[in-house]
Amino acid sequence: MLEDAERWLNTRSWSVDDRPLKKIVAAKRSSNATVSVVLPALNEEETVGEIVAVIRRDLMLRVPLVDEIVVIDSGSTDRTSEVAAAAGARVVHRDDILPRLPAVPGKGEVLWRSLLVTSGDIVCFIDADLKEFSSDFVSGIVGPLLTDPGVDLVKAMYDRPLGEAAGQGGRVTELMARPLLNMHWPQLAGFVQPLGGEYAARRSLLEQLPFPVGYGVELGMLIDALHLVGLDALAQVDVGVRKHRHQDGQALGRMSAAIYRTAQLRLARGHLIRPSITQFERGEEGFEPRTYSVDTEERPPMADVAEYARRKAA
Known about the structure:
Layout: H1 3-11, E1 13-15, H2 21-31, E2 35-41, H3 48-61, E3 68-73, H4 80-87, E4 90-93, H5 107-114, E5 122-125, E6 130-131, H6 136-147, E7 153-159, H7 171-184, E8 199-202, H8 203-206, E9 211-212, H9 217-229, E10 234-241, E11 243-244, H10 249-268, E12 276-283, E13 286-293, E14 298-299, H11 306-313
Parallel strand pairs: 1-10, 2-3, 2-5, 3-4, 7-10
Antiparallel strand pairs: 5-8, 6-11, 7-8, 9-14, 12-13
Helix pairs in contact: 2-6, 3-4, 7-10, 9-10
């Protein structure tokens, strides 16, 4: 391992137990910092309510750590919005944010727009499909930002079981993201879950970053943050085990293509000859090709958006 990455791994990797909740809340009180939790959601009625309820119970009612929970619904056709609102979240529909700019599909698009409808000095992103959710996911990654002024972004790390098989989740991480980081950005090789959807950052950093609109958002954010604030401003916290709904192999292929594209743009800002991926499904007459476009669009840093600048000035 690169010497810088090994040093970072030993000094910027913590456990959730390293910072007791009482210490984190005290640091929040003394700093007057505010914390927003954002859940991007698309058809997550089975899990989103429990996640919101746990955060609200543990980190709003029992201790005053989280100031707002916002669920951004990106077009659910089930009861995601109703369930999230009933559990205590403020629900905002993606298309109602920055309506002059038509929304495009993708997780990164939702996270980018969330900056316009949240107010926290620290923004914590949590995927809405987590099962057996613990509020440690939030307090663990928010803690270093409140107790250490030199930290700007914190990612959760965890075990990812695949069914009954321990440690077999995160297939795109192992097959695509980790090799890319080790070969091209070896300083980031110490991140256990570089593509994980649970991370927190200072608003002052997030508003300066471009957001890939799709699956590449986590990789792009990590690389861009490295260049903007440096390795020592990044950290990770072990929060235990992450259980969630797994996607099929073809969906993972599309995700991998988007992540590769994100890396390619950051390597050379070059032209991708064919921004699409063809996969195959067996049909009545044999294997049939299915071609999907690869996310290539990125949203600019939120600090460059006029509506956001006006809101900050108000």
